[in-house]
């Protein structure tokens, strides 16, 4: 584990839904370091990174970082290097484990679509939306985070989960940034090349920035692949633009010789819908973490 990205990792047992911290502010770990919390009686592990220079008396923005299918929060925090960006920009990162065990890792419960195991989650599986909502509430009660500045990102299956949060928990999140995993609802049963509009009806406009690679063979931007995927990234961006009532776009421009951007503008309530695609990149963390934060910082709930 790289000390410069994660700092000292400290194991802490915590009853997550317990009483909030004292009035002095967030006291869940050392500033500039990462703590590992065992999440109450759920048995789940969460990595929590408090940025360098954090003013404990002032609630900070929160970025939920969701791992890919079969992964863990610890692995995701290390691979994404998001803790480094948190230190530069002053936001807290929470990287929890998903609720469905798979081999040595976990997958997220997105109702109605199969996970990478091919199994559709059932009523006996953990409710990840409820869990993540309680996690946000607890961090707010402990005076760590500003509930108006809570954001979600994730890789692959975590990108699909952050998309799902935008669909069904828009009252809790100010913006989302799926990485190689943007969706806009489940594939339509009668035509999986389009999203089912009944499965994504946000309660408020949702700003979206999505990152992908045009050589991704797992979740190809051209669509196809596994049953949970099927429709294209362009279709997903267009659907979010429709949901946000964007009146301009798609506008495409090159940012450099390896990166281009597709953008929808003039959207309801100041929202934006942006896709950033890296030429030649595969199924990896393609996000520019600083650009992601600049996008997040423009939006609050």
Detailed description of the structure:
This protein has 301 residues and is α/β, with parallel strands linked by helices. It has helices spanning 3-6, 73-80, 82-89, 128-141, 157-168, 233-243, 289-297, and strands at 9-14, 34-39, 44-49, 60-66, 92-96, 100-102, 105-107, 145-155, 175-179, 187-188, 191-195, 208-213, 248-256, 259-265, 273-278. It has an 11-stranded mixed beta sheet, sandwiched between helices. The protein has a two-stranded antiparallel ribbon with strand order 6-7. Strands 10-11 form a two-stranded antiparallel ribbon. Strand 14 (259-265) and strand 15 form a beta hairpin. The protein is globular and about 50 Å long.
| Quaternary organisation of the protein chains | single chain
Helix-strand pattern: HEEEEHHEEEHEHEEEEHEEEH
The overall strand count is: 15
Strand content: 25-35%
> Helical stretch count?
7
SSE blueprint and pairings:
Elements: H1 3-6, E1 9-14, E2 34-39, E3 44-49, E4 60-66, H2 73-80, H3 82-89, E5 92-96, E6 100-102, E7 105-107, H4 128-141, E8 145-155, H5 157-168, E9 175-179, E10 187-188, E11 191-195, E12 208-213, H6 233-243, E13 248-256, E14 259-265, E15 273-278, H7 289-297
Short structural description:
The protein has 301 residues and is of the alpha/beta class.
Tags for this entry?
301 residues, alpha/beta, eleven-stranded mixed sheet, two-stranded antiparallel sheet, 22% helix, globular, disordered N terminus
């Amino acid at each position: 584990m790289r000390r410069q990205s994660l700092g000292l990792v400290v194991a802490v047992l915590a009853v997550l839904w317990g009483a909030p911290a004292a009035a002095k502010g967030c006291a869940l770990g050392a500033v500039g370091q990462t703590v590992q919390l065992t999440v109450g009686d759920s048995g789940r592990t969460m990595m929590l990174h408090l940025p360098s220079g954090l003013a404990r008396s002032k609630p900070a923005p929160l970025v939920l970082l969701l791992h890919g299918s079969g992964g863990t929060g610890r692995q995701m925090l290390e691979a994404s290097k998001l803790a480094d960006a948190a230190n530069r920009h002053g936001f807290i990162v929470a990287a929890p484990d998903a609720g469905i065990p798979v081999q040595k890792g976990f997958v997220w419960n997105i109702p109605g679509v199969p996970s990478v195991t091919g199994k559709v989650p059932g009523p006996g599986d953990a409710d990840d939306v409820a869990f993540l909502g309680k996690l946000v509430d607890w961090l707010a009660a402990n005076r760590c985070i500003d509930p108006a500045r809570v954001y979600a990102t994730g890789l692959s299956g975590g990108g699909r989960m952050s998309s799902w949060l935008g669909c069904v928990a828009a009252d809790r999140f100010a913006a989302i940034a799926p990485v190689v995993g943007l969706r806009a609802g489940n594939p339509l049963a009668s035509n999986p090349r389009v999203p089912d509009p009944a499965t994504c009806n946000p309660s408020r406009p949702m700003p979206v920035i999505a990152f992908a690679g045009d050589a991704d063979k797992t979740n190809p931007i051209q669509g196809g692949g596994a049953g949970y995927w099927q429709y294209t990234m362009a279709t997903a961006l267009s659907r979010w633009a429709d949901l946000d009532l964007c009146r301009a776009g798609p506008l495409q421009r090159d940012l450099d010789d390896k990166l281009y951007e597709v953008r929808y503008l003039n959207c309801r309530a100041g929202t934006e819908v942006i896709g950033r695609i890296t030429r030649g990149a595969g199924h990896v963390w393609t996000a520019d973490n600083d650009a992601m934060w600049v996008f997040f910082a423009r939006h609050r709930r």
